[in-house]
Design brief:
single chain, mainly alpha, 2 domains, 5 helices, elongated
Length: 109
């Protein structure tokens, strides 16, 4: 999965939870303030719309929105592990990447 697709997924998750609960960016800003995150509404809207935020900020948004679990499904973003139990050695990097792509539902490159 490329970085742009991942960013779209991260933004989509925040926006979907906002929509699901009928929350505006002003509501999100208030909820973030309640957990100690100082962000004005305009900057918050810009960060979310552009996807220009850190992983820590993304998690803060999800906590503020009341999200407690995220299910990562194979074929979207979920990586459920290797089918083999051996450790990945330097010489098997391409095999490891192929396994990740297979589990995540990507085609052959």
């Amino acid at each position: 999965m490329d970085e742009q697709a991942l960013t779209q997924w991260l933004v989509g998750l925040v926006r979907a939870h906002m929509a699901q609960h009928g929350l505006s960016y002003a509501d999100l800003q208030q909820r973030l303030a309640a957990i100690g995150v100082d962000e004005n509404e305009r900057n918050l809207r810009n960060k979310v719309m552009r996807g220009t935020f850190s992983a820590a900020f993304w998690i803060q948004c999800l906590v503020a929105l009341g999200v407690r679990n995220i299910q990562l499904e194979p074929g979207t973003l979920g990586f459920v592990g290797f089918t083999r139990s051996e450790n990945i050695q330097d010489g098997t990097k391409s095999e490891a990447l192929a396994e990740i792509h297979k589990v995540m539902g990507f085609g052959e490159d």
